[in-house]
Design a protein that fits this description.
This protein folds into two domains: 228 residues, 2-Layer Sandwich (PmbA/TldD fold); 246 residues, no CATH class. The chain is globular. The chain has ten helices and 23 strands. The mean pLDDT is 96. Strand 16 and strand 17 form a beta hairpin. Strands 1, 2, 3, 4, 5, 6, 7 and 8 form an eight-stranded mixed beta sheet that branches. It is α+β, with helices and mostly antiparallel strands. The longest helix has 19 residues. The N and C termini lie far apart (54 Å).
């Protein structure tokens, strides 16, 4: 594979080409298993291979890919990418810069793991899922029980015309359970350890074994049934305490996407949208309260956004995004960082596979913990609501106005968790909402949640990212019962 990368780079040594990048992915594997109501309901296994070439003239990029890992196909793919770059350059009236990165330019990166999830017998995984799914049925009201498992494995070789190169093997895995209870027209769902397939990490099958799926399933089934008897969430402004998993999704939607520099520049407007953040506001914009500190960290162990180097050869790094409530950084590539006048790339340029050109993506965008225990945080709430586990979400294309529904809510009365409430929905505007943050729990409740389904780009790409979050307390948030 190293020889194939080198051959493609030599083929890109042509007049007018100022940079070339080659990625060979072989193999790129995935596995999805699911058990629904006692029977296997999904078995999806895939193995892909490919080579992607991106070249740049002084004015434009060109990208092409092939599934044939041969010298002939590699040379043909390079020629296609060069033709596309030259054609695109005819409509560009000014040259653009690309930052040179001073970080390490060569090496190897591999996911630390004990048990390869793609090598575990499928019968063993299905047996675990069946055992967990059986315990979801806590009563006749549970009409649907679902237990799922997913894993991905990607080996990549990268080389660029500036001499940078690396090899990486990254493995992601996760699982979860969900119970759906029905009574008449009322439908309640309870998912654990969180929704959207469960929790995910960059590690081995030992992560799935450590989730305790059967025990989580029993809790999930019981709470789904209990929610059928719970009153609707009260409506009106209140003090809101968000569980770690819901707060992680809030970070993803209203901070992560809003601080992607291509969205800020408007170049993702056609599909993913833009951002309420303007380029000139970086360094001065009041994004939230002084309790808010967010970092993009591609070095944190176990993250789905953790790697050795991104798809431009930039070394993984930790970049402050929000410091004491002020926006101080963004997610960027070499090109977008140069356009903004930054001194280095954020190292967040990634592609979902060899058949896609890299673009600005989240790594692990984490909300830093505070200094309170959960009990101390609750003590500051005379009356409010605790919400956890996302059920629905809606946010505009500027990442400004939003509405989120959660699977579960509990009243908080005199600093104590009380009765369940169902169908809670909260809404707000991004800077107002984050400005109402007045307390966070400490590292004991901070958790790095894996999100396997972040979509962006044309052609469409699905990325896997992570978000670390504690439990947060927000004042005067609009809530209603759905």
């Amino acid at each position: 594979m190293e020889d194939l990368v080198a051959l493609a780079l030599r083929a890109a040594e042509a007049a007018g080409i100022v940079r070339a990048e080659v990625r060979v992915v072989s193999p790129q594997r995935s596995l999805h298993l699911a058990v629904r109501n006692g029977a296997a309901s999904a078995l999806t296994s895939s193995v892909d291979h490919g080579l992607g070439v991106r070249v740049r003239t002084d004015r434009a990029w060109g990208f092409a890919a092939t599934t044939e890992l041969t010298p002939v196909a590699a040379r043909a793919t390079v020629r296609t990418a060069m033709r596309l770059a030259r054609a695109a350059g005819r409509s560009q009236h000014r040259p653009f810069r690309l930052l040179e990165d001073p970080g390490p330019t060569a090496g190897e990166y591999a996911t630390p793991l004990r048990i390869d999830p793609l090598e575990v017998p499928r019968e063993e995984i299905l047996s675990l899922l069946k055992a967990a799914e059986a315990r979801l049925h806590a009563g006749p009201e549970v009409r649907t029980g679902l237990a799922t498992f997913q894993a991905w494995d990607e080996t990549k070789w990268f080389g660029a015309s500036d001499g940078s190169s690396y090899r990486s093997r990254i493995v992601h895995v996760g699982a979860g359970v969900s119970a759906t209870a029905v009574r008449g027209a009322d439908v309640q769902r309870r998912s654990l350890p969180t929704s959207f397939g469960g929790d995910f990490a960059q590690t081995g099958y030992e992560f799935v074994l450590g989730l305790g799926l059967p025990e989580l399933a029993e809790e999930s089934g019981r709470e789904a049934v209990r929610l059928l008897d719970a009153p609707a969430a009260p409506s009106g402004p209140t003090t809101l305490v968000l569980g770690s998993d819901q707060l992680a999704l809030q970070v993803h939607e209203s901070v992560g996407h809003a601080t992607e520099l291509d969205r800020i520049f408007g170049s993702e407007a056609g599909f993913a949208g833009t951002s309420w953040v303007s380029p000139g506001s970086i360094g001065s914009l009041r994004y939230g309260s002084p309790a808010m500190n967010v970092v993009a960290d591609a070095t944190v162990p176990g993250g789905l956004g953790t790697f050795g180097w991104d798809d431009e050869g930039v070394a993984a790094r930790r970049t402050p995004i929000v410091s004491a409530g002020t926006l101080v950084g963004v997610l960027s590539s070499r090109e977008t960082a140069a356009e903004l006048g930054l001194t280095e790339s954020g190292g967040t340029c990634r592609a979902s596979g060899p058949d896609r050109a890299p673009l600005v993506r989240m790594t692990n965008v984490n909300l830093e913990p505070g200094d309170l225990s959960f009990e101390e945080l609750l003590e500051g709430v005379e009356e409010g609501l605790y919400l956890a586990t996302n059920r629905s979400w809606s946010i505009d294309d500027k990442r400004l106005n939003f509405q989120f529904g959660t699977e579960i809510g509990r009243r908080i009365v005199h600093g104590e968790l009380g009765d369940l409430v169902r169908n809670p929905i909260y809404s707000g505007m991004t800077p107002t909402f984050w400005g109402s943050l007045d307390a966070l729990t400490d590292e004991r409740t901070w958790h790095l949640w894996g999100v396997p389904n972040c979509g962006k780009g044309q052609p469409f790409q699905v990325a896997r990212v992570s978000h670390g979050a504690p439990i947060g307390r927000f004042r005067n948030v609009a809530v209603r019962g759905g």
